[in-house]
Design a protein that fits this description.
- With 654 residues, this protein is α+β, with helices and mostly antiparallel strands.
- The protein has 13 helices and 32 strands.
- Helix 6 crosses helix 8 and helix 8 crosses helix 10.
Length: 654
C-alpha cells in the first residue's frame, strides 16, 4: 500500500532544498543525466502501435486455426496425428513464404538445442537417450481451395514453406495439411513428458503439433529456434482437436470437452454435470475406483473431443491413473467455468492435490475480478513429472508438491492465463513479460487466498539487492536463451516481479498502478505487445515519466545506494530550530527517498521525497524543522527499496 498515511503533509514544503544549498560529499557512480536522459523512446507511435502504448487504429495480426486428430500409443510412448492449418494473412504485406514451429525437433539427437543445453539441464531431455523429433509426411498446401505448388525446407525446429504464388495482403487464406508423429520424451524441457506411477503412466502432451510462427509488424517472421529455455510466441485462432487413447485412460485438454457423454460412464457423467453447478469439490473418479474396471467404459479405445477458441495453443494429458475432481468457477460477468484436477493417488490428500480444485477455483476467481475475466470453459490442473508449465486452459504441475508448494505452483501456472495466454507477448525474446508479470500478480494473490494462508510476507529488498548486484547478473531484457541458466530465476521471474511491486507500492501507488495495468491487459488482450508498448501504456495510464525506472531496472542492472551523509543542527538564538539532513545518491539507480526521523521524546516522522530530486542532483538536503533533539535518522527503515549498502543508511546521536 502506498504509505500516504505516514507522510507528514505539513513537512512537505520544508523538506526540499535547492541545488545550490547542497554540501560536498564523496562522489559515487550516480549520473543524473544518464538516469534521466530524455532519449529513451527511439521511435514515435504510429498507426499500428500508438504512442499511448495501446494498439493503433490499423493494428493487425494474422490468424491461424487448427483441426487436429491424434492417437496415443501408451506402449511405445508415441503420438501420431494429422493437422489441418488454416492461415489467414491480415497483414499489409505479400507473403511469399511461411514459417512453422516444429518444437519436438529439439529432442532429436542432432538438434541445435541439444548442442547448446548442458548435461542435466532443466531444458533438455534430462539424462535420457534423445530419440525424439517429428516424422512428417503428406505435406500439402491449398490456396483458394485448390492445390498449390510449393517447396519446403526443415531447419532444426523450423519449417519453411515456399509458395510459388505469394499470399496476398488483407485476408488471403492458405490451408496446410500434414501427418506427424513423435516419441514422447520422459522429460521434454520440463514442459511435457511422461511419468510412471503405481496405477499407470501419466502423459503430459504439449508442443505436440506443428504450429505457425508469428508474422508481426515488429520483426516480420519470428523464427528464433526452440532451444528449451525460451518459451513460446504463438498466433491466435481456434483449435479443434480429438485424442484417441486407451479406454482405461481419462483425457483432459485445453478448452471445452465436447463429448463427455461418450467418454464417461453414466455415473461419472452425472458427477461431471453436478460439478458444473457446485461450489464444492465433486469427485468424478475417486481413489477407490482406480482399479475398478466399471469405472471406465468397456471398450478398447475412446476418442475425446475438445475445442478452444481465440487461443494461442492447446495441450492435453492422458492416464488411467487419474483421480478426477471438479467444481464450478464463478466469473464476474455471470459466466461459469469448470475447475478440474487430475492427479495420481500418490498426490491425493489435503496436503497435496486433494485441495487442487479449491486452489484452481479461488485463483481463477481472484484474477478474473482483479485484472481480466478468465476466457476458457475449463481450468485443468494435471499433476505430472513436469515441475510447472502453463498452456491455455490446462497446466502441468509437479506431482510431489505439498501444502504451500502445491498452492504456489497452481496459482503461478494459472496466473499465466493472463500472461501470456491473454496478453500474448513474445516469450522467446522477452520471458520476463510473462514470468515476471505473473510473479507480481501471484504475490497479490497469496495475500488474499484464504486470509493469507500461504502468504510469505514482504520481501527484504536490502537483502535481495545484494543478489541483484552480483557482477555476473545479467539484465532483464536479455533473451532467456542468451542468459546464464542460474540467472533465469532472478531475471525472468523475481526481479521484474519485485520491480512492479516497487513501482506499485513505492512510486505510483496502488490506485494509479492498478488502473494503468488493467488497461494494459484489456487493450492487449489476445494481441502481441512489445516491452515498449508496456512501458508506454503504464506511463500514459499512470501519468508519470518512468523512463528512469525502465532504464535502470529492466534495460540495465543498475544498483541503488542512498546514504545519510550528514546530519547537522540548525540553531536560532542558541536553541535548536531544526536539522539539515544530507542524503546522497551514490549508485546509478535513482529511487524515491523514504526517511524516518526520531526525536528524543520518542516522536517518529516518516518523510517521503519523490525521485524527481535526483534529476539534476547527486545529493539533497532535507530540512527538518523541530525544537527537539533528533536522536536517529534512517533511510528506508522497512527495507522496501533495493539499497545495496545498509551500513550507510542511518545516523544516530552520539
Amino acid at each position: 500500500m502506498f504509505k500516504k498515511s505516514v507522510m507528514l503533509l505539513a513537512l512537505l514544503a520544508m523538506v526540499f532544498s535547492s541545488a545550490d544549498a547542497q554540501q560536498p560529499v564523496s562522489p559515487g557512480n550516480y549520473d543524473p543525466h544518464a538516469a534521466f536522459s530524455p532519449l529513451f523512446y527511439t521511435q514515435n507511435g504510429n498507426e499500428f502501435r500508438s504512442a499511448s502504448g495501446y494498439p493503433g487504429p490499423k493494428y493487425w495480426q494474422n490468424r491461424v486455426d487448427y483441426n487436429i486428430i491424434a492417437n496415443l500409443d501408451e506402449v511405445n510412448n508415441k503420438v501420431t496425428g494429422s493437422v489441418t492449418i488454416t492461415y489467414k494473412n491480415n497483414s499489409p504485406d505479400k507473403l511469399s513464404y511461411l514459417w512453422l514451429q516444429l518444437d519436438q525437433n529439439l529432442f532429436a539427437p542432432e538438434s541445435r538445442g541439444n548442442a547448446l543445453i548442458p548435461a542435466g539441464s532443466r531444458y533438455g531431455a534430462r539424462g535420457e537417450k534423445l530419440d525424439g523429433g517429428y516424422n512428417i509426411e503428406g505435406l500439402s498446401v491449398s490456396q483458394k481451395q485448390k492445390p498449390a505448388k510449393f517447396s519446403s525446407l526443415t531447419e532444426d525446429t523450423r519449417m519453411q514453406i515456399r509458395l510459388e504464388q505469394p499470399m496476398e495482403p488483407g485476408g488471403d487464406v492458405v490451408t496446410i495439411r500434414m501427418n506427424f508423429s513423435f516419441i514422447v520424451p520422459v522429460n521434454g524441457s520440463d514442459r511435457m513428458g511422461h511419468l510412471t506411477t503405481k496405477n499407470g503412466e501419466i502423459f503430459s502432451i504439449a508442443q505436440w503439433f506443428p504450429r505457425m510462427s508469428v508474422y508481426d509488424d515488429v520483426l516480420g517472421w519470428n523464427t528464433l529456434p526452440y532451444w528449451g529455455a525460451g518459451e513460446f510466441y504463438c498466433e491466435y485462432g481456434d483449435i479443434d482437436f480429438a485424442v484417441t487413447a486407451p479406454a482405461s485412460h481419462i483425457v483432459m485438454g485445453s478448452g471445452e470437452l465436447l463429448n463427455p457423454q461418450e467418454v464417461f460412464t453414466p455415473v461419472q457423467l452425472q458427477r461431471w454435470n453436478a460439478a458444473k453447478n457446485s461450489d464444492k469439490k465433486v469427485t468424478i473418479r475417486s481413489e477407490q475406483e482406480l482399479n475398478d474396471l466399471e469405472s471406465r467404459p468397456a471398450k478398447d479405445k475412446l476418442t475425446w473431443k475438445f475445442k478452444i477458441k481465440n487461443t494461442r495453443d492447446a495441450a492435453w494429458a492422458s492416464s488411467k491413473a487419474f483421480v478426477l475432481d471438479a467444481a464450478r468457477i464463478n466469473l464476474p460477468s455471470g459466466k461459469k467455468s469448470l475447475a478440474v484436477a487430475a492427479h495420481p493417488v500418490e498426490s491425493n490428500g489435503n496436503d497435496g492435490y486433494g485441495r487442487a480444485v479449491e486452489y484452481i477455483k479461488t485463483t481463477i476467481e481472484h484474477y478474473s475480478s482483479k485484472w481480466f475475466e478468465y476466457p476458457y470453459p475449463m481450468a485443468v490442473n494435471v499433476a505430472s513429472n513436469v515441475g510447472g508449465m502453463e498452456y491455455p486452459g490446462i497446466v502441468f504441475c509437479g506431482w510431489q508438491a505439498k501444502g504451500s508448494s502445491a498452492w504456489g505452483v497452481i496459482d503461478h501456472e494459472f496466473g499465466h492465463t493472463w500472461f501470456p495466454m491473454i496478453v500474448g507477448s513474445n516469450e522467446r525474446k522477452y520471458g520476463w513479460m510473462d514470468e515476471g508479470f505473473n510473479t507480481f500478480i501471484n504475490a497479490i494473490s497469496a495475500e488474499v487466498f484464504n486470509n493469507g494462508e500461504y502468504n510469505q510476507g514482504k520481501n527484504d529488498m536490502h537483502r535481495i539487492a545484494a543478489t541483484l548486484a552480483r557482477p555476473e547478473m545479467e539484465y532483464i531484457m536479455l533473451s532467456p536463451d542468451a542468459m546464464r541458466e542460474r540467472n533465469i530465476g532472478n531475471n525472468l521471474y523475481s526481479k521484474p516481479g519485485w520491480g512492479l511491486e516497487i513501482l506499485r507500492n513505492e512510486i505510483l501507488g496502488a490506485d494509479r498502478f492498478d488502473y494503468a495495468f488493467r488497461n494494459y491487459i484489456s487493450e492487449w488482450a489476445f494481441k502481441h505487445p512489445t516491452p515498449y508498448d508496456f512501458f508506454r501504456a503504464m506511463e500514459n495510464g499512470a501519468g508519470e515519466d518512468l523512463s528512469w525506472f525502465w532504464r535502470g531496472w529492466f534495460l540495465n542492472n543498475w544498483k541503488m545506494d542512498q546514504s545519510v551523509a550528514e546530519v547537522k543542527e540548525v540553531k536560532q538564538g542558541g536553541a535548536i530550530a531544526g536539522y539539515n539532513i544530507l542524503i546522497a545518491n551514490l549508485e546509478q539507480m535513482p529511487m524515491p527517498v523514504i526517511l524516518e526521523v526520531k526525536t528524543k521524546s520518542g516522536k517518529t516522522d516518516m518523510i517521503r521525497i519523490p525521485v524527481d530530486i535526483w534529476m539534476r542532483n547527486t545529493t539533497w538536503t532535507v530540512r527538518y524543522p523541530t525544537t527537539e533533539e533528533v536522536v536517529s535518522v534512517t533511510l528506508d527503515p522497512a527495507h522496501v527499496l533495493p539499497d545495496i549498502n545498509e551500513a550507510n543508511n542511518g545516523w544516530k546521536k552520539n
